[in-house]
C-alpha cells in the first residue's frame, strides 16, 4: 500500500496550479486589459486543474471506503489541504484581477470610481 500512496500523492497534488498562479501574477503586474483577459484565461485553467484534483481525491476516497481498505487518512488529508490552498490562491488572484481591471477602467473613464 505504501507504493500506491506515493503514486497517488504525486499524481493528485495540484502541481500545475502554483506555476499557473506565478504566470497570472506576472501578467497582473503589467496591468492592461488585454493581459487581464489573458490572466483570466490562466485563472480558469488553474481552476479546472484544482477541480480535477478535487474530483480525483474524492474518487480515491470513495474507492478506498467501498473496497474496505479504509482511506489512508494522512494521504487524503494532505491532498485535501493542497486542494484547499490552491483554491484560496485562485480566489485571491481572481479578486486582485477584478480590482486591477476596475482600476484600469476607472483610469480610462469607463467605470465609476469606488468611494474609499
What do these coordinates show?
The protein has one domain (17-106). The chain is 83% helix and 0% strand. It contains four helices and no strands. It has helices spanning 2-12, 16-30, 33-67, 73-107. Helix 2 (16-30) packs antiparallel against helix 3 (33-67), helix 2 runs parallel beside helix 4 (73-107) and helix 3 runs antiparallel to helix 4.
How would you describe this structure in keywords?
116 residues; mainly alpha; disordered N terminus
Question: Which helices and strands, and how do they pair?
Answer:
Layout: H1 2-12, H2 16-30, H3 33-67, H4 73-107
Largest sheet: none
Rounded to an integer, what's the Rg over CA atoms?
19 Å
Tell me how many strands there are: 0
Mean pLDDT: 69
Count of discrete alpha- or pi-helical segments spanning 4 or more residues: 4
Q: Tell me, what's the shape?
A: rod-shaped
Q: What is the structure about, briefly put?
A:
This protein has 4 helices and no strands. With 116 residues, it is mainly alpha-helical.
Amino acid at each position: 500500500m505504501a507504493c500506491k500512496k506515493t503514486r497517488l500523492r504525486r499524481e493528485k497534488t495540484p502541481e500545475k496550479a502554483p506555476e499557473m498562479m506565478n504566470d497570472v501574477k506576472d501578467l497582473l503586474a503589467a496591468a492592461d486589459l488585454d493581459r487581464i483577459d489573458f490572466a483570466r484565461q490562466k485563472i480558469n485553467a488553474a481552476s479546472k486543474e484544482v477541480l480535477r484534483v478535487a474530483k480525483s481525491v474524492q474518487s480515491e476516497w470513495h474507492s478506498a471506503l467501498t473496497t474496505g481498505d479504509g482511506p489512508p487518512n494522512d494521504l487524503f488529508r494532505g491532498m485535501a489541504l493542497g486542494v484547499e490552498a490552491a483554491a484560496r490562491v485562485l480566489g485571491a488572484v481572481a479578486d486582485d484581477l477584478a480590482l486591477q481591471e476596475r482600476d484600469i477602467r476607472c483610469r480610462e473613464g469607463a467605470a465609476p470610481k469606488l468611494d474609499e
